[in-house]
């Protein structure tokens, strides 16, 4: 059986409805960690585990364990240097299509897990031919919503600047046709923007500037002397279901308890803390998630309420909208610790497509229907299933039947394509 993976933020987002966003997102993340551990143990006893999914929660060595004993809140610059990135093969801002992640698994069982996989440094940031749309949307959001959607607390300033510097190094290596490193920062040769990151004070918040360079949303967690990780910097511009200001400044534990994440205290809190403390600069990780949205808005899903409402919830969403209004929202999240500041950086890249498009791909309608049916009550609530299950499942079943009638070999999907597909 395969580990079911779910979302950090997918769930968080579905939780959104309960107004919990980032929190939920982080929460589930971590909870997911724990569940992964359990599931992997279980898996190991039944089937060979996937070699691509090592146990990322355990320290690789004794020395890894010892490092955890350092004084909380203090980070000794590790001296680690990321290997230089290779250019993305044949990348072109006008022709390189988004990677079609389909990170859902067959039922009947569904596990909420963190679903972490090791990440190659080269693959830290993914850009494609939707770049210019994302870039324009972000600029508009930064102007219209201002510091409701981005910000950097003083304790996170060094980390935010290190993130910006790292992007100025990485992007020209990986996407040389678009970015050029300069003595004071970076130039985007396509949009004609130049950023001087040596100016002090910086002309704008470093998280806002970082967000302008890439398609991802960004968040930074910082360890304080109490040993907790706090959300102290972010640029959350296209997240659909959650708002930075709801969780800004909160520690992981509060983010989660305030979001009523099931079993957080009993089952998740400790593992989550350990995961953050053990994360090393040289071992970045990535995960994927997905959820369904019943409107076509990338930046903010109005179905769950106005972005300025006190509370937002799936309760307000219209039920059983036509299938044309169903969208597949999927995130690719990376998690790195920056070596100088010790800041933990999340990148959250959203991929957004109509359901009516993704069903054209072999096996997708059948597998997605199976996955949606495997959600337990809690996950279903988080993901708003009640609002769209009738229309969606009827449609997916019909599309699956059409694929079978057209000759789809149901038993040959196999392991040829593995998660996240
Ligand atoms: C960048 O900022 C620094 C510090 O303010 C300044 O000395 C330098 O002239 C600026 N460079 C450019 C190219 O604007």
UniProtKB/TrEMBL annotation:
Residues 45-68 are annotated as: Disordered. It comes from Penicillium frequentans. Keywords: Membrane, Transmembrane, Transmembrane helix. Residues 45-54 have a biased composition (Polar residues). This is Alpha-1,2-mannosyltransferase. The chain crosses the membrane at residues 21-42. Coiled coil: none annotated. Residues 55-68 have a biased composition (Basic and acidic residues). InterPro entries: HODM_asu-like.
